[in-house]
């Protein structure tokens, strides 16, 4: 073998007649082995405990082609030649109906190979799809194994039919992954603004002898709510400018292979890091105007949104009314509680997992306090008065109020069981009641705790031996069979019980909270069975026993993931037990697979940082991103992980691009707003997160101790360098922002600093001053003292 060192990488090319090549990273952790001859093969191998083991392979060639009219007869391609190129190898082959090239390059990452495929069909041949497919070498267990056929599998969407795929419309965090033992493998599309080619990911675990992963130029078509299948009539777009004379057109796509030894079931965390490092971070930096509204472009800064949300919109939906000796109020959703959308409804108050009026009122109160507006604070507190007037039954309480009829309803009758009490809704409301008492109205904390103790006792009593807390209770307070013995939304009750334990010091509540999260750790995490009410009862309805037998995945929804990550963090904060923080970061990183890492050019708004919902639906930038933003911010504070802060900023901004709608492209492929809107699942929830985060982050935030910074409000910070007492950076911002208030952490208060930005510089400033007061810069002035 001839070994060549090129740019820090090892290239080995055989001089044997049959031909062989090995492309190996300088770190010695991944390599591509190519063998030609009668039985050519491409094989990706990784180092596991010092030994090379196969992760992925393709016999003949990875590339396969389907022509129009013969969807069930793929043309397998055959490798013919290989050549060494700078930092890589060039493979060429024949597919019978055209030629292909596969350029494989090493990258600075120790476990990543970049692949570019070009297919040139013969004249007169009409192509349906071209893709690269790799078998997963470790194989699978028996299909009926309770642990599942593989240790880990993930795709953005799961399958309702065998030919379903994940099209570019669904590329939020685009990757497909498999792991068995320590062997982790993934395919990650290389995204660009030139996304005219129909592209899709695919995977299958059970249908063939081995599981496989695929990516390529695959046309797709939508059906149902919301699935996508391979289109038998579609055609890939061609790159006209690269088409040789006499050929129909060049079809091209790019992706990376990520393969390495990873901790059991946790290889996805490697993909999460790469998705942000390679795509999300730069996309966020380039999207400093991400808050600009797609239909009202004059709304862009948080100052713009604060005025529009808290003064205009809140005033439109606020209703005040007497309740006993107090003044009650609501920020109405005008939402039919039975899901009869064609029927108009009057003002209402919702205290449920989606429309948490008390959370939005919390943000409104923060705004009133920040602006010294006593009237707004009084109105916001009237929402607390309302929920404290909810009728209770054995600790359970109603969570929907109809103002005109003065009627309390137990819970949502559309995405739930309207006559029953919902533990998730009561727990989430109870959590925010405790936040009110601790943060805003400490003089009322005992009143709040007195209201909530019976509910806490109710949950402790209802908790099953497994640790799960049943989700729904009838009028006799008996658990409903659905969601009784297994549900992931039990994490919401765990978060509430831990918070109640923190407020009261009652160890029974803490013990119950521990049991709930032990249940989640033991029963939910191994197969990622994130079953909550939205998984089955919202718009993407499905049977309770729905399962994807092709990819071996369960339906899942990320509302319960958000609650679980928050509950683990709360238990860590109370107990200081590291295991809770560790498990919490595992859940958080899994949640981040539903965060959007780019601005898909198929859609008009800026979408980077937003969140989708579940693996059987397809919307972009759903309003739950406001919850995720605060969660990520809290995890940044707990871990110091800069990526979590950047992702928090992206999530906090993303609601505003599409407001007032609850999401964008609800069906996943049409460039249009979602069908519904509401104050609490849109601008109200989004601005509440901003009000919570802004006191720390300002318009921009720099942590001198970590040499890290991020822009929060309609700006981007680049090229940050800390050189002793000099702080260098460049800023981009929307012109309407004016002065940018930068908050600092990690400064030596006894020192002095000079700030240099965009070629401007300050005088020397006391460290104590920038810590306490921040520093305001302008992009138009030469100097700021």
From TrEMBL:
Signal peptide per UniProt: 1-19
Keywords for the protein's UniProt record, in alphabetical order: Signal
GO biological process: carbohydrate metabolic process
Species name: Edaphobacter acidisoli
Protein name in UniProt: Alpha-L-rhamnosidase six-hairpin glycosidase domain-containing protein
């Amino acid at each position: 073998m001839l070994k060549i060192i090129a740019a820090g990488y090892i290239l080995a090319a055989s001089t044997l007649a049959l031909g062989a090549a090995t492309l190996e990273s300088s770190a010695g952790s991944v390599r591509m082995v190519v063998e030609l001859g009668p039985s050519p093969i491409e094989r990706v191998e990784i180092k596991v405990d010092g030994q090379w083991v196969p992760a992925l392979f393709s016999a003949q060639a990875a590339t396969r082609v389907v022509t129009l009219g013969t969807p069930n007869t793929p043309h397998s391609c055959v490798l013919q030649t290989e050549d060494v190129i700078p930092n890589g190898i060039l493979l060429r082959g024949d597919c019978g109906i055209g030629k292909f090239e596969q350029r494989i390059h090493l990258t600075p990452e120790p476990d990543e190979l970049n692949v570019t495929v070009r297919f040139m069909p013969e004249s007169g041949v009409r192509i349906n799809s071209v893709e690269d497919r790799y078998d997963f070498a470790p194989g699978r267990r028996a299909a009926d194994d309770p642990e599942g056929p593989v240790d880990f599998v993930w795709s953005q969407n799961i399958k309702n039919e065998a030919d379903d795929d994940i099209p570019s419309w669904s590329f939020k965090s685009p990757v497909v992954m498999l792991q068995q033992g320590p062997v982790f493998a993934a395919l990650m599309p290389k995204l660009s603004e030139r996304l005219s080619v129909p592209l899709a990911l695919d995977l299958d675990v059970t249908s063939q002898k081995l599981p496989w992963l695929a990516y390529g130029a695959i046309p797709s078509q939508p059906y149902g709510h919301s699935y996508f299948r391979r289109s038998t009539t579609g055609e890939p777009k061609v790159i006209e400018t690269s088409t040789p004379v006499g050929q129909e057109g060049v079809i091209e796509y790019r992706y990376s292979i990520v393969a390495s030894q990873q901790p059991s079931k946790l290889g996805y965390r490697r993909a999460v890091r790469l998705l942000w490092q390679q795509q999300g971070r730069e996309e966020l930096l380039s999207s400093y105007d991400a808050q600009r509204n797609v239909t009202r472009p004059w709304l862009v800064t948080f100052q713009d949104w604060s005025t529009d949300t808290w003064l205009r919109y809140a005033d439109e939906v606020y209703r005040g009314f007497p309740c006993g000796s107090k003044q009650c109020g609501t920020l109405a959703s005008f939402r039919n509680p039975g899901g009869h959308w064609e029927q108009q409804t009057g003002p209402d108050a919702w205290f449920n997992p989606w429309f948490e009026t008390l959370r939005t009122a919390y943000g409104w109160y923060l705004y009133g306090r920040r602006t010294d507006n006593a009237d707004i604070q009084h109105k916001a507190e009237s929402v607390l008065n309302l929920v404290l007037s909810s009728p209770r039954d054995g600790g359970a309480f109603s969570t929907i109020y109809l103002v005109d009829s003065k009627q309390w309803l137990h819970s949502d009758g559309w995405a739930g069981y309207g006559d029953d009490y919902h533990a998730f809704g009561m727990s989430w409301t109870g959590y925010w009641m405790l936040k009110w008492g601790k943060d805003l109205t400490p003089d009322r904390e005992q009143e709040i705790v007195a209201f909530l103790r019976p509910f806490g006792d109710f949950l402790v009593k209802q908790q099953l031996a497994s640790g799960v807390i049943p989700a729904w209770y009838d009028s006799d307070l008996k658990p409903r069979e659905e969601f009784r013995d297994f549900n992931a939304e039990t994490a919401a009750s765990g978060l509430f019980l831990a918070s109640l334990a923190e407020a009261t010091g009652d160890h029974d509540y803490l013990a119950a909270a521990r049991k709930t999260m032990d249940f989640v750790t033991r029963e939910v995490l191994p197969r990622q069975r994130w079953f909550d009410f939205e998984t089955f009862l919202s718009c993407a309805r499905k049977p309770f026993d729905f399962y994807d037998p092709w990819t071996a995945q369960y339906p899942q929804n990320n509302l319960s993931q958000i609650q679980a990550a928050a509950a683990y963090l709360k238990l860590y904060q109370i107990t200081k037990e590291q295991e809770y923080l560790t498990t919490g970061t595992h859940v958080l990183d899994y949640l981040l697979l539903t965060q959007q890492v780019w601005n898909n050019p198929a859609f008009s708004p800026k979408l980077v940082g937003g969140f989708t919902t579940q693996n059987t639906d397809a919307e972009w930038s759903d309003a739950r991103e406001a919850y995720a933003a605060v969660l990520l911010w809290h995890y940044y504070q707990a871990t110091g992980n800069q990526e979590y802060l950047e992702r928090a900023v992206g999530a906090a901004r993303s609601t505003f691009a599409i407001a007032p709608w609850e999401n964008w492209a609800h069906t996943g492929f049409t460039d249009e707003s979602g069908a519904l809107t509401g104050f609490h699942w849109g601008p109200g929830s989004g601005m509440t997160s901003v009000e919570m985060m802004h006191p720390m982050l300002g318009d921009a935030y720099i942590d001198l101790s970590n040499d890290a910074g991020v822009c929060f409000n309609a700006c981007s910070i680049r090229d940050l360098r800390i050189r002793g007492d000099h702080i260098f950076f460049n800023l981009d911002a929307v012109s309407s922002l004016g002065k940018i208030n930068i908050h600092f952490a990690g400064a030596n208060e006894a020192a002095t600093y000079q700030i240099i930005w965009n070629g401007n510089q300050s005088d020397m400033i006391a460290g104590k001053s920038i810590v306490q007061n921040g520093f305001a810069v302008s992009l138009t002035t030469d100097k700021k003292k």
